[in-house]
Design brief:
46% helix
Length: 170
């Protein structure tokens, strides 16, 4: 019985405390930017994360996919609505008139990326309010396309909008 208790205590200390501390130390030593959440700073202030979506309301920027939980990382995927949800049709119709390429909510509520077609569909609005040319937007898009995970090519909205900012304010 004593051997079992000592083994339990030893393994609990090693695997429950030692291993997580070791992995955290290695992560912070070699990949501190990623471990800290890939935070983007401007003027010493955190303006977003490359891993967590955020809303953009200004018409001169690309807007993210709608979020059912208000882009709160602490509420990931808590508000999935089935196809039979009564308000889904009304939501889809309102989205279609506003942004036809984004007729559904973000699955996690915090997707930082959009498919290329969803970004491209917003170019007419951005051209109008940002006073950017279609050529400028296409070039910017081409330089920000990333491979999606098991899916289509995507664009990180925060990265794209940060690159768009100097063009809009020129």
């Amino acid at each position: 019985m004593r051997v079992a208790i000592r083994t339990f205590i030893l393994l609990s200390a090693l695997l429950g405390v030692g291993y997580p501390l070791l992995v955290s130390a290695i992560g912070h030593t070699f990949w501190s930017y990623q471990v800290d959440g890939s935070l983007v700073r401007s003027g010493g202030k955190v303006i977003g994360s490359l891993l967590i979506g955020q809303p953009f309301h200004s018409p001169q920027y690309i807007h993210a996919r709608p979020s059912a939980n208000g882009y709160h990382a602490d509420g990931l995927a808590k508000d999935h609505r089935p196809v039979t949800f009564a308000g889904l049709r009304a939501f889809a119709q309102s989205q279609h008139s506003a942004q036809p390429a984004m007729m559904t909510y973000s699955s996690s509520g915090v997707d930082p990326d959009l498919p290329v077609a969803a970004v491209r569909s917003q170019f007419p609005r951005v051209e109008k309010y940002c006073h950017a040319s279609a050529v400028q937007l296409q070039e910017l898009l081409a330089s920000h396309i990333e491979s999606g995970i098991l899916g289509p090519q995507v664009v990180n909205i925060l990265k794209f909008n940060l690159a768009l900012k100097p063009i809009c304010h020129a």
